[in-house]
Design goal:
By secondary structure, this protein is α+β, with helices and mostly antiparallel strands. It has two domains: 5-108, no CATH class; 113-258, no CATH class. It is 37% helix and 22% strand. The protein contains eight helices and eight strands. The protein has helices spanning 5-27, 32-48, 56-64, 70-79, 85-92, 112-118, 184-193, 247-258, and strands spanning 122-123, 143-149, 152-159, 166-172, 201-208, 211-218, 223-230, 236-243. The protein has an eight-stranded antiparallel sheet with strand order 1-2-3-4-8-7-6-5, with helices on both faces. A hairpin with a 5-residue loop joins strand 7 and strand 8. The termini are far apart.
Length: 260
Protein backbone atom coordinates (compact mmCIF):
# COMPACT_ATOMS: atom_id res chain seq x y z
CA UNK A 1 0.00 0.00 0.00
CA UNK A 2 1.44 3.38 -1.08
CA UNK A 3 1.99 6.12 1.47
CA UNK A 4 -0.24 9.11 0.78
CA UNK A 5 1.11 12.65 0.51
CA UNK A 6 -0.68 13.58 3.74
CA UNK A 7 0.99 10.72 5.59
CA UNK A 8 4.36 11.77 4.20
CA UNK A 9 3.87 15.32 5.49
CA UNK A 10 2.98 13.96 8.92
CA UNK A 11 6.13 11.84 8.93
CA UNK A 12 8.27 14.83 7.97
CA UNK A 13 6.66 16.98 10.69
CA UNK A 14 7.25 14.21 13.20
CA UNK A 15 10.92 14.02 12.26
CA UNK A 16 11.34 17.80 12.57
CA UNK A 17 9.59 17.80 15.95
CA UNK A 18 11.86 15.03 17.19
CA UNK A 19 14.96 16.85 15.95
CA UNK A 20 13.82 20.03 17.71
CA UNK A 21 13.28 18.11 20.95
CA UNK A 22 16.66 16.36 20.62
CA UNK A 23 18.43 19.69 20.11
CA UNK A 24 16.62 21.21 23.09
CA UNK A 25 17.58 18.32 25.36
CA UNK A 26 21.18 18.46 24.14
CA UNK A 27 21.33 22.15 25.10
CA UNK A 28 20.33 21.55 28.73
CA UNK A 29 23.07 22.61 31.18
CA UNK A 30 21.86 20.18 33.89
CA UNK A 31 19.73 17.05 34.09
CA UNK A 32 16.03 17.28 33.30
CA UNK A 33 15.10 16.04 36.77
CA UNK A 34 17.02 18.98 38.23
CA UNK A 35 14.87 21.38 36.23
CA UNK A 36 11.72 19.75 37.55
CA UNK A 37 13.09 20.04 41.08
CA UNK A 38 13.92 23.70 40.42
CA UNK A 39 10.39 24.47 39.20
CA UNK A 40 8.86 22.83 42.27
CA UNK A 41 11.31 24.68 44.55
CA UNK A 42 10.45 28.05 42.97
CA UNK A 43 6.72 27.37 43.12
CA UNK A 44 6.90 26.76 46.85
CA UNK A 45 9.23 29.70 47.50
CA UNK A 46 7.15 32.21 45.54
CA UNK A 47 3.95 31.16 47.26
CA UNK A 48 5.56 32.39 50.48
CA UNK A 49 7.40 35.46 49.20
CA UNK A 50 6.55 37.45 46.02
CA UNK A 51 9.12 37.49 43.23
CA UNK A 52 11.57 40.40 43.65
CA UNK A 53 12.36 40.18 39.91
CA UNK A 54 15.80 38.64 40.42
CA UNK A 55 17.06 35.04 40.25
CA UNK A 56 17.35 34.99 44.04
CA UNK A 57 15.72 31.60 44.70
CA UNK A 58 17.02 30.03 41.49
CA UNK A 59 20.57 30.86 42.57
CA UNK A 60 19.85 29.56 46.07
CA UNK A 61 18.55 26.28 44.62
CA UNK A 62 21.64 25.84 42.46
CA UNK A 63 23.89 26.49 45.45
CA UNK A 64 22.00 24.20 47.83
CA UNK A 65 22.00 21.38 45.28
CA UNK A 66 25.68 21.89 44.41
CA UNK A 67 25.04 22.16 40.68
CA UNK A 68 28.41 21.83 38.94
CA UNK A 69 28.23 24.97 36.76
CA UNK A 70 25.56 27.35 38.13
CA UNK A 71 26.66 30.26 35.90
CA UNK A 72 26.07 28.11 32.82
CA UNK A 73 22.58 27.24 34.09
CA UNK A 74 21.77 30.92 34.73
CA UNK A 75 22.97 31.87 31.23
CA UNK A 76 20.79 29.13 29.74
CA UNK A 77 17.75 30.23 31.74
CA UNK A 78 18.06 33.88 30.72
CA UNK A 79 18.55 32.93 27.06
CA UNK A 80 15.25 31.02 27.34
CA UNK A 81 13.28 33.89 28.89
CA UNK A 82 14.03 33.24 32.57
CA UNK A 83 15.36 36.61 33.73
CA UNK A 84 13.97 36.20 37.25
CA UNK A 85 12.44 33.46 39.42
CA UNK A 86 8.91 34.20 38.26
CA UNK A 87 9.89 34.15 34.59
CA UNK A 88 11.72 30.84 35.05
CA UNK A 89 8.36 29.37 36.02
CA UNK A 90 6.30 31.07 33.33
CA UNK A 91 8.69 31.10 30.37
CA UNK A 92 11.00 28.13 30.94
CA UNK A 93 8.84 25.53 32.70
CA UNK A 94 6.43 25.23 29.76
CA UNK A 95 9.32 24.09 27.55
CA UNK A 96 9.42 20.89 29.59
CA UNK A 97 5.82 19.92 28.85
CA UNK A 98 7.11 16.80 27.11
CA UNK A 99 7.95 15.42 30.55
CA UNK A 100 5.39 14.07 32.99
CA UNK A 101 4.60 15.39 36.48
CA UNK A 102 5.52 19.02 35.84
CA UNK A 103 2.37 20.51 37.37
CA UNK A 104 2.19 22.08 40.83
CA UNK A 105 -0.29 22.14 43.66
CA UNK A 106 -1.44 25.73 43.14
CA UNK A 107 -0.93 28.43 40.50
CA UNK A 108 1.47 31.25 41.24
CA UNK A 109 -0.33 34.46 42.18
CA UNK A 110 0.70 37.51 40.16
CA UNK A 111 -0.21 41.14 40.65
CA UNK A 112 -1.50 43.26 37.75
CA UNK A 113 1.94 44.61 36.87
CA UNK A 114 3.42 41.12 36.55
CA UNK A 115 0.45 39.85 34.53
CA UNK A 116 0.80 42.80 32.18
CA UNK A 117 4.32 41.69 31.34
CA UNK A 118 3.78 37.94 31.22
CA UNK A 119 0.47 37.78 29.35
CA UNK A 120 0.76 36.80 25.72
CA UNK A 121 0.65 39.71 23.29
CA UNK A 122 0.54 40.04 19.52
CA UNK A 123 3.05 42.38 17.92
CA UNK A 124 1.49 44.96 15.59
CA UNK A 125 2.75 47.85 13.47
CA UNK A 126 0.08 50.47 14.12
CA UNK A 127 -2.75 51.19 16.55
CA UNK A 128 -6.16 52.77 15.74
CA UNK A 129 -6.25 56.50 14.96
CA UNK A 130 -8.91 57.09 17.64
CA UNK A 131 -6.14 57.45 20.24
CA UNK A 132 -5.11 60.76 18.58
CA UNK A 133 -1.49 60.63 19.80
CA UNK A 134 1.21 62.42 17.78
CA UNK A 135 2.55 58.96 16.86
CA UNK A 136 0.70 56.09 15.15
CA UNK A 137 3.31 53.36 15.42
CA UNK A 138 6.17 52.43 17.72
CA UNK A 139 9.46 54.14 16.85
CA UNK A 140 12.59 52.28 17.96
CA UNK A 141 13.39 51.26 20.64
CA UNK A 142 9.68 50.90 21.52
CA UNK A 143 7.66 47.82 20.59
CA UNK A 144 3.91 47.93 19.99
CA UNK A 145 1.58 45.05 20.77
CA UNK A 146 -2.04 44.22 21.52
CA UNK A 147 -3.86 41.76 23.75
CA UNK A 148 -7.49 40.95 24.46
CA UNK A 149 -8.94 41.98 27.82
CA UNK A 150 -12.57 41.00 28.52
CA UNK A 151 -13.35 40.82 24.82
CA UNK A 152 -11.74 44.18 23.99
CA UNK A 153 -8.39 44.94 22.38
CA UNK A 154 -5.81 46.67 24.56
CA UNK A 155 -2.73 48.33 23.07
CA UNK A 156 0.66 48.55 24.74
CA UNK A 157 4.11 49.98 24.12
CA UNK A 158 7.11 48.26 25.68
CA UNK A 159 10.65 49.43 26.29
CA UNK A 160 13.11 46.77 27.46
CA UNK A 161 12.65 43.11 28.39
CA UNK A 162 11.44 41.09 31.35
CA UNK A 163 10.33 42.60 34.64
CA UNK A 164 12.71 45.51 34.17
CA UNK A 165 10.70 46.64 31.15
CA UNK A 166 8.65 49.81 30.91
CA UNK A 167 5.07 49.05 29.83
CA UNK A 168 2.87 51.85 28.47
CA UNK A 169 -0.87 51.17 28.23
CA UNK A 170 -2.74 53.21 25.62
CA UNK A 171 -6.12 54.26 27.02
CA UNK A 172 -9.13 56.32 25.92
CA UNK A 173 -11.32 58.89 27.68
CA UNK A 174 -9.81 59.50 31.11
CA UNK A 175 -12.63 60.24 33.62
CA UNK A 176 -11.89 63.95 34.17
CA UNK A 177 -13.94 64.04 37.38
CA UNK A 178 -11.22 61.90 38.98
CA UNK A 179 -8.76 64.79 38.75
CA UNK A 180 -10.59 66.51 41.59
CA UNK A 181 -10.86 63.32 43.65
CA UNK A 182 -8.31 63.42 46.44
CA UNK A 183 -6.09 60.34 46.58
CA UNK A 184 -7.35 58.89 43.28
CA UNK A 185 -3.93 58.35 41.69
CA UNK A 186 -2.50 56.96 44.93
CA UNK A 187 -5.34 54.45 45.06
CA UNK A 188 -4.62 53.44 41.46
CA UNK A 189 -1.01 52.65 42.41
CA UNK A 190 -2.34 50.37 45.17
CA UNK A 191 -4.71 48.69 42.72
CA UNK A 192 -1.94 47.97 40.21
CA UNK A 193 0.67 46.79 42.73
CA UNK A 194 -1.79 45.17 45.18
CA UNK A 195 0.26 46.64 48.05
CA UNK A 196 -2.48 47.70 50.46
CA UNK A 197 -0.60 49.78 53.02
CA UNK A 198 2.49 51.29 51.37
CA UNK A 199 4.77 53.61 53.32
CA UNK A 200 5.85 56.95 51.94
CA UNK A 201 3.61 56.82 48.87
CA UNK A 202 3.57 60.17 47.07
CA UNK A 203 2.60 61.77 43.79
CA UNK A 204 4.37 64.38 41.72
CA UNK A 205 2.78 66.45 38.96
CA UNK A 206 4.89 67.52 36.00
CA UNK A 207 3.82 69.86 33.20
CA UNK A 208 5.48 68.94 29.90
CA UNK A 209 4.25 70.79 26.81
CA UNK A 210 0.78 69.46 25.86
CA UNK A 211 0.67 66.81 28.61
CA UNK A 212 0.47 66.52 32.37
CA UNK A 213 2.40 63.73 34.07
CA UNK A 214 1.19 62.38 37.42
CA UNK A 215 4.01 60.27 38.86
CA UNK A 216 3.10 57.97 41.79
CA UNK A 217 6.00 56.36 43.63
CA UNK A 218 7.45 55.36 46.98
CA UNK A 219 11.08 55.25 48.15
CA UNK A 220 10.41 51.87 49.77
CA UNK A 221 8.91 50.04 46.78
CA UNK A 222 10.05 49.32 43.23
CA UNK A 223 6.91 50.01 41.13
CA UNK A 224 6.24 53.47 39.71
CA UNK A 225 2.95 54.30 37.95
CA UNK A 226 2.75 57.37 35.70
CA UNK A 227 -0.43 58.83 34.22
CA UNK A 228 0.15 60.94 31.11
CA UNK A 229 -2.92 63.09 30.46
CA UNK A 230 -3.48 65.53 27.57
CA UNK A 231 -4.12 69.14 28.56
CA UNK A 232 -6.29 69.69 25.49
CA UNK A 233 -9.52 67.91 24.66
CA UNK A 234 -8.03 64.68 23.31
CA UNK A 235 -9.24 61.12 23.89
CA UNK A 236 -5.95 59.29 24.27
CA UNK A 237 -3.94 59.09 27.48
CA UNK A 238 -1.20 56.80 28.82
CA UNK A 239 -0.76 54.68 31.94
CA UNK A 240 2.89 53.79 32.43
CA UNK A 241 4.26 51.05 34.65
CA UNK A 242 7.97 51.25 35.33
CA UNK A 243 10.47 51.03 38.18
CA UNK A 244 12.06 53.45 40.62
CA UNK A 245 15.56 52.88 39.21
CA UNK A 246 14.60 53.74 35.63
CA UNK A 247 11.50 55.92 35.61
CA UNK A 248 13.33 59.21 34.97
CA UNK A 249 14.91 57.87 31.79
CA UNK A 250 11.56 56.37 30.76
CA UNK A 251 9.95 59.79 31.22
CA UNK A 252 12.44 61.27 28.76
CA UNK A 253 11.65 58.53 26.23
CA UNK A 254 7.91 59.17 26.61
CA UNK A 255 8.45 62.92 26.18
CA UNK A 256 10.24 62.21 22.88
CA UNK A 257 7.41 59.94 21.85
CA UNK A 258 4.79 62.62 22.47
CA UNK A 259 6.53 65.54 20.81
CA UNK A 260 4.36 67.03 18.09
Amino acid sequence: MKTTEKQQRKEVQKVFAQEKLDNFRASLPMEEKCFLALFYYLEKALQRVPCDHTLRYTTLFLTENKVSDPEKVVDWLTSNGGYCDCEVLYNVEEQFDYLENTSYEAPLKLNKLEKNILEKKKKIKEFPSKFDFPFSSAPAPWKLSQKEVQGKQEYLLQLGKGFNACIVMLRLDFPKEKLAEEGYFLSQWKTFTEIKSPKGLEQEILEVEAYQYIVVKSKEYTPVIIFVLPKENKRGYLVVQTELSRYRNDLKEIERLLKE
